[in-house]
Write a structure and sequence with these properties.
The chain is mainly β. 9% of the residues lie in helices and 58% in strands. It has two helices and 19 strands. The chain has a 16-stranded antiparallel beta barrel with strand order 1-5-6-7-8-9-10-11-12-13-14-15-16-17-18-19. It is globular, with a radius of gyration of 21 Å.
């Protein structure tokens, strides 16, 4: 497949960047500050010399993905809309990091996004179960969050679908495909089913995933299964991840496990409470066990305040 993605990206970026700079509409400055305390007992683990290590408990004041950003969109000719977004992560110490940096076009044809953003695999599989404030995806395989790629998304009947292409970045003349994602989400009765495949040229095999979500009375729930074959000749076991989430009122529970050479298990209990306009508190108790011989679960408690503004 011979994709001229670099040329397309440059053309789209040039056509959109100037209008967005000149007259960004439907957007502006926004932010979210999420700061609090985290206690961890460290758990026990076996080091490279076969010795049992029992770390001291630790408590920190830290940020959980605090961010600020700028976004905008501009109506263009022929029913098209150009859009762009920059979002930066901010910690209690250290330099800001880039969370989102993307530009695109949307219209009746669907949406084309180029740059750093969430893409097809996350949108249709992983994101369906990535629901706790922090202690999420204990059983997710191939968690690909905000990465740099080109994604097309569109509506297909009652469902939606997308395709993501990753390209080799160190050779501007290369047309080699560096990886792809394909996914779709569609209704199944009162539920939503997401399916996806991710195949990246990074030494791993393709990952398959399915996520089912819905509501039962006042309980919101989601479940996901992800699987990845071990590289041929590696001697490792195939990996299978299972994640289940249930939320009722202000509380939730998330349980995830990955079955491979070591069977890991993570359990998260959480509670949120709104305490003012655009301000809420959230609390989490998470237990994470790597499954390695001689290890014990790492117990972590989190308590934080979150304030948003647009």
């Amino acid at each position: 497949m011979n994709f001229k993605l670099t040329a397309v990206a440059s053309a789209v970026a040039m056509s959109i960047a100037l209008p967005l700079t000149a007259q960004a509409e439907g957007g502006g400055f926004y932010g979210s500050v999420r700061v609090g305390a985290e206690y961890s007992d460290g758990g026990k683990f076996i080091d490279e010399f076969g010795q049992t290590v029992d770390p001291d408990a630790n408590i920190d004041i830290r940020s959980w993905a605090s961010r600020f950003g700028f976004k905008g969109e501009t109506e263009m000719a022929n029913g098209l809309t150009g859009f762009g977004k920059y979002e930066f992560g901010v910690n209690t110490s250290g330099s800001p990091s880039v969370r989102h940096a993307n530009v695109g076009l949307k219209g009746d044809f669907g949406t084309l996004t180029i740059g750093q953003a969430y893409h097809t695999w996350y949108n249709n599989v992983i994101g369906k179960i990535d629901l706790p404030w922090w202690g999420s995806c204990n059983g997710c395989i191939a968690y690909t969050g905000r990465s740099t790629a080109a994604t097309y998304e569109g509506n297909f009947g009652a469902g939606t679908g997308g395709v993501t292409l990753y390209m080799v970045g160190n050779d501007p003349d290369s047309n080699e495909l560096d990886g792809f994602e394909i996914g779709a989400t569609f209704p199944v009765g009162s539920m939503s089913l997401g399916l996806g495949i991710q195949d990246l040229d990074n030494g791993t095999e393709a990952t398959l995933g399915a996520a089912l979500s819905g509501t039962s009375g006042n309980i919101g729930w989601a479940a996901a299964v992800t699987s990845q074959a071990a590289p041929s000749g590696s001697g490792a076991d195939d990996a299978l991840g299972i994640e289940v989430y249930a939320g009722i009122g202000n509380g939730y529970i998330d349980v995830g496990t990955v079955s491979a050479n070591n069977d890991s298990l993570g359990i998260t209990l959480g509670y949120t409470k709104t305490i003012g306009e655009n301000t809420l508190s959230w609390f989490e108790l998470q237990s994470s066990d790597s499954g390695a011989d001689g290890s014990s679960a790492d117990l972590t408690l989190r308590a934080a305040l979150k304030h948003d503004w647009n």
